Amino acid sequence: MANNGTNKNADVLQSSPLGAGGRQRLVILGSGESGVGAALLGKQKGYDVFVSDGGMLKANYKQELIDNGIDFEEGGHTTEKILSADEIVKSPGIPEKNELVKKIRAKGIPMISEIELAYRFKGDSKIVAITGSNGKSTTTSLIYHICKSAGLDCALVGNIGYSFAKQVAEDPKPLYVAEISSFQLDDIKDFRPDIAILLNITEDHLDRYDYKFENYINSKFKIIENQQQEDYFIYCLDDEVITKHLENINLQTNPLPFSMRQELNKGAWIKGDQMMLKVQEERMSMSIYDFALKGKHNQYNTMAAGIATATLGIRKERIRDSMADFHSLEHRMEHVATVRGVEFINDSKATNMNSTWYALESMRKPTVLILGGVDKGNDYSEIEELVREKVKAIVCLGIDNTKIHEAFRMIAPVLDTDNAIDCVKQSFRLAEKGDVVLLSPACASFDLFKNYEDRGKQFKDAVKEL
């Protein structure tokens, strides 16, 4: 695809979607939250919008398209209609190796992500964008919580659940706090956050990046590729992948690092049991024991949130209070119940090894660990030491658990289950008073569940039935 042609076409659309030859045709591939949001914004801005989905539309999304007079198809793609587009918004779930995507690329039709379309029409609003392999949702939600508590008029958007484009179309705000995935970053052009946060980079989603870690790293760093001198880049100085990559790029933005290992001139760091924060003239300290979010990984998340909100000019007293009263997210280290002395924790959102490592690292009681699902190329040796130290038994929740058995059968008992009810019953049987049952699967959920939310909900329902 020729870059010059793409940029020229996109610039024309940005200035006016109503071209001289009639309305510009915008095709949306995928009808999930982001796809329908893009369709609604495109319609509002005067595009001729067509939505195409290879699967069946959810009833609520279909009704939204009908109510807004947006043309769509489901259960398959009409190639001719798609290739007649002036521009295409691609769902982040559709990979480059998709045959239809290959045809679009071959024809040179500009293809963007929903966040790019939203950015095009966000006006003077500010964006805080958060990405990373782990901790995105928690950090995004904490920043939003601090901003709301400080009285800022803002919206929580992006990968966390609500379409950025739909928010811009229906209820624009002066500030957007956006969780951004690498898939969403892959198809940006001009997207430029005022504050960009890169929490960490570990091997994840490599099946989407030709199994080349460098491709995934480059995707994450796209979050700052359009930033300028007046913008801010918040990143983890302790992450060797990030710091090594920074050695090879010319940073055009203001860096604000955070660290547990060293004191800094600006940014945030942990000294003893105190978090120290210094941004411009704003300085604050806070005991890590007062953080609502527990565990070492959440100290990193909290530092990132503290820097971002201080950069927005929020007073340190408000930041401190909000960090102390924040409630953790559903499906992320979520306390479910304590049944006859056994605590159940739902960490269903842990779909990779790094997330599960952090979950185990924070355990302070003997643990029955629930693993399994769709393996994304996991190397279970990454958690072997923690399993030896903390885990008394492993219960698999998946169809193919071969790799888990091979990795841990000499360390702890490993049992198989293929549904949430049996999984919870077996885990409870293996646990004793004072133990924890931790669902932190390190795998995707699609073999047995609709998504990680469905897995977490079924787990919680099964616990309540004990």
From TrEMBL:
Residues reported to bind ATP: 132-138
Record key words, sorted: ATP-binding, Cell cycle, Cell division, Cell shape, Cell wall biogenesis/degradation, Cytoplasm, Ligase, Nucleotide-binding, Peptidoglycan synthesis
InterPro entries, alphabetized: Mur-like_cat_sf, Mur_ligase_C, Mur_ligase_C_dom_sf, Mur_ligase_cen, MurD
Mur ligase C-terminal domain segment(s): 331-443
Molecular-function GO term, any one: ATP binding
Gene Ontology cellular component annotations, sorted alphabetically: cytoplasm
Stretches assigned to the Mur ligase central domain: 130-308
Subcellular location field: Cytoplasm
E.C. code: 6.3.2.9
Reaction(s) catalysed by this chain's protein: UDP-N-acetyl-alpha-D-muramoyl-L-alanine + D-glutamate + ATP = UDP-N-acetyl-alpha-D-muramoyl-L-alanyl-D-glutamate + ADP + phosphate + H(+)
A Pfam match: Mur_ligase_C
Role according to the record: Cell wall formation. Catalyzes the addition of glutamate to the nucleotide precursor UDP-N-acetylmuramoyl-L-alanine (UMA).
Similarity comment: Belongs to the MurCDEF family.
UniProt cross-references to HAMAP family, sorted A to Z: MurD
Name of the protein in question: UDP-N-acetylmuramoylalanine--D-glutamate ligase
Organism: Panacibacter ginsenosidivorans
